[in-house]
Structure formats: structure tokens, C-alpha cells
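ok posting inputs for the HC0 job
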Amino acid sequence: KINININGIALEVDQGKTILEAADQAGIIIPTLCYHKDLCIAGNCRVCVVELIGQKRLSAACATPCEEGMEIRTNSLHVRNSRKHIIELLLSEHRAECTSCYKNGNCELQKLASDYKIVTQDFIPLAQQKKYTIDQFSPSILKDDSKCIRCQRCVRTCAGLQGVNALSVAHKGDRMKITTFFEKAITEVVCTNCGQCINHCPTGALVERNYIEEVWDAISDPELHVVVQTAPAVRVGLGEEMGFPPGERVTGRMVEALKRLGFNSVLDTDFTADLTIIEEGTELLERLKKTLKEKDPSVKLPMATSCSPGWIKYIEHLYSDCLEHLSTCKSPQQMFGALVKTYYAESRSLKPEKIVSVSIMPCTAKKFEAARPEMHASGYTDVDYVLTTRELAIMIKQAGIDFAKLPESSFDRLMGQSSGAGVIFGATGGVMEAALRTVYELVTGREVPFEKLNITPVRGSEGIREACIKIENPQEGWEFLDGVELRCAVAHGLVHAKQLMDQIKAGTSPYHFIEIMACPGGCLGGGGQPIPTNPEIRAKRTEAIYAEDEEMPLRKSHENPEVLLLYKNFLGHPLGKKSHHLLHTSYIE
Ligand code: HC0
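and the output
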């Protein structure tokens, strides 16, 4: 421990703490822009400057470690004036058309300009003179150079959190910019569309491509039947946009809000999450049989989950010789889309061409996924529009809905029922846990004891986690699995996916089954979730997901009555002909 003094307050702090962290401990807020809890320190925006008594130069609080006896002033005249100048300089290079900016109201630069009352313009407004590019080619991400303050959070996100490096810094001095390889469009580089850059951008330089108006148009058209599905993680994030603290579950209110917005049917992606488990679990068992029993060298293990579209793009871009490891299952979003315009349309006597299928996702890559040319198994575009959790919040506000006063409502039927296993898809490790609950019962014919339903080794926030399940006394047909230790691994954040993929590539992977989610924390930390994000917020959302699971009357996918009905009345059996056509896919090298 060392002793310091901040603004006259004596403080004991751990050695190695930065001034920013020490100030936080003392309840003193130092403004930041380039700093983010998820990222390595850059110290390049200088907004967090503080005065150290005895030193002439100001220091960046985020990048300066505390030293014994340090006397720090965070609010002296020198600090205030410098900070104001820094903000003014940043604004002089920023196209500050705030009222027409998509980030209006949730922009960190705007908030600083407001807090520091920047009302004069002492510097030449360079943003008006410079040429700039707005990259609008991606169905997921818009990148507007004129709003960029070059804090490089996006670059550090893409490199440090995701290990993708689609964004980098080019040029020097006043020509310096954040760009891509050879300044190509985002769609032409290794971007996975994960949207983590959006979640970490302090301004409107990176935002989601929004489809709010298109969805309003569809809802307003009396000829159309507009169906909406909501992803598992939306229900534990949406509340933050509506003034609730992180971790508030708003499932029932969300459903009621969607009904009031005018959707004709409010259904649940968790239903197809359960369906995914049946298809993917069966596929895993088939692969185990082919490799362990039939010794078929053409079948690849470990099998990797295939529901996170950022992860899919990552493996297609960077490990295209490992695509056979991916499960052929489409994601729950796309399974849902394919069923809405076939099974749902038939059951409800609706013409598929009159159905508009909308999904609410915590994810920007889902927009890209829905736009993939192969996602037309129903004969139509399976999912027409994908909105993020943030876009849904905008619609709710536009509609004048007082979210806090809403009663709770239930999902509509046919594709609205789910188990707790479907819910936990929203957290890293959830797909694995859900799959293991089902695979164990399919193989042994015995029920997973209630106290063992929570498979804790695959839970948590470690980048990579492992579980080993020993199979004993399997039922008839699965004898070859007797005594087999099913080795599983879970990774979240693409930087961790790399470790598992390098093992596969080298032929040293010890696993049978791996789950990879592109975003930190899984979907609940997705690129379409409320901003801000950080480890504490994601931990609260994670707790909420598991609490939702524990409250569900059914907690195993294969017990979902609506899924069983779907097989009985429409699909036949898992991995059957219809399933293969509607629910499975292949990948692009
Ligand atoms: Fe996810 Fe999903 S769990 S990817 O994170 O599998 O986006 O929430 O909707 O599709 O169900 C996202 C979340 C989903 C899908 C599901 C999967």
C-alpha cells in the first residue's frame, strides 16, 4: 500500500494503481475518452489530465501510476483550463452536428462538451474543411470518419478484445485516421461485424446500420403480418436503455412493449435455441459415433458451435481450412426465420410473402447473417430485418411507451415457448451447458439430477473454460461411449477463440466439443447491447440470465412442448430431410 493525497483527501491505495483508479476509489470523477475498462491504456486523448504538486507538466491520470507521497489535484484552475482546451481541440476536428447524429444523447464527447460548457470556438473548425468518408456498405456497421476523434478505442477493441485487427491507424499528424487495410470498405476486410468497436466508440464515428424506419413501415402496412423474435440476451439488456440498473430482467415488459408497438405476433428466439440444442446435440452424437465407433477419418472433432455469426465470419476469414469443425446447424435466429415462413405460415394459414420477419438481437453481426445469400431456405428472405437492443429501445421511446409502467405479458404461442436452457444461450458457456443437459439424457436415458443442472465449470468470465463429463452406463445404442470422458471447452471474445483454433489447426485439440461466442460475456455483451459496457455490467447481465433460467418451469431443451410439437407435425425427426433443408447450412471458404 502507498499513501497519496487527492484534492486534500488522504488515501491509501494499492501499489500499481493509476491516479484514475485511485480517484475512483475516493469518489472523485476524472473525465476520460480514450480510456475504457475493457481495453489496454493508450493515454492519447489527454482529457484526464491532472496536476501533480511540484510538477509543471500535467499528467494523464489513466496512464500514471500512483507514487508514495503524491499530491494530486484533479480540479485546479490549470487542470480545468487545459481540459477545456483539449475538449475544444477535439471538437474542432469533429463534425459536431449533434442534433442530427445517431449517437445524439449517448455520446461521450457531447457529454463532456456539455459538462464543461464549451460555448465558444477558439480553434479553427477543421472538420468543416476536411474531406471525409462514410462507409455505408456493411449491413451491420456504419463508419463515419468525420465524427472520429482518433482515441483508438476501436483499434484496441478490434486488436485486444477480438484479435481481428480489421481497424488500424494510418498516416501521421493531421492526416492520421482510423482505417482498414488499404482503406477498403469494412465489407472487404477481415471485419467480423461483431460491433464491439461500436460498443467502445465514444462518439458517433461507429454506429449500427439501423432499420427502424423499415420496420415501422412494415408494421403500418395492414396487408402485412409482422412477426418478431427476441434473442435471449435482449431481455437482460433492454432495461438499461429504459432507465433500469444493469441486471434488471424485463422479459414480460419487453413482450408487452412489442405488442404495443404493433407487431402481429411476439415470439421467442429461445424457442429455436431449444431446437438448436436438439439438432446440434444429435449432430454431436452422430460425429462421436462416426469417429469413436466407426473410425471414419473424414468426420471432424472437436465440433464447434455455429450460432454466433461474428465467430462464423472469423473462422471463414482466418481459419477457412477448419470449417468442417463447425456444426452445420444454423443459428437460432435463422432457424426461426426459416420456420416462420414455412411452419408458422402453414399453421396460421398465412401467405409467406405477406409475412415480415423481424428479429431483436443483442448483436450487429446478426444483421450480416440475415443478409447472407444462403439464408433463403423458406423460399423467401428468412429474416427480413434485424434490430439491435438499442434500436428496439429507440422504437419504444418513439412510440411514447412508459416502459417502467408496463404490465408483464407472455410470448405468443406456436414458437414462443422455451426452456431455461434456451435462455442461457445469452451467456458465454450457455450453449454448451444447454447441450450437455440434453446430450447426457439422450445418451444415458437417465434424468440429469436437479442439483447437477447448473454445469458450473462452463460458467464464469475466464476467457477459456473447460469441462469434462464422464459417461457411465449409457443406454442401448450408445455403449461405445461407456467410460468416455467428453471433453468440452468454451471461449468468448475472438482473441480467445484463436487459442482454441490454433490447437485445432495444429491437430492438438484435446476436445470433443467447443463453444465459441464472438463477444465478451457471450451475446449479453454483444455489439448491439446498451452502451456503456464493461466487465461489471456484463457480470450483472450474466447473473440475470442464470436467474431467468432458474425460474423457468422447464430447464431442458428436449422437454420444450412446442419443439416436440414442431417435430411431430412438421419436421419429422432431428437431422431429417426437412431439418436438413431448413435448419442446416454450409460455410464459405
Ligand atoms: Fe445470441 Fe443466439 S444466443 S447468438 O448470443 O445460438 O445475438 O442473445 O440470439 O441466433 O438463441 C445473439 C443472444 C442469439 C442466435 C440464440 C444462439
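notes: The mean pLDDT is 97. The chain has three domains: 2-75, 91-208, 223-589.
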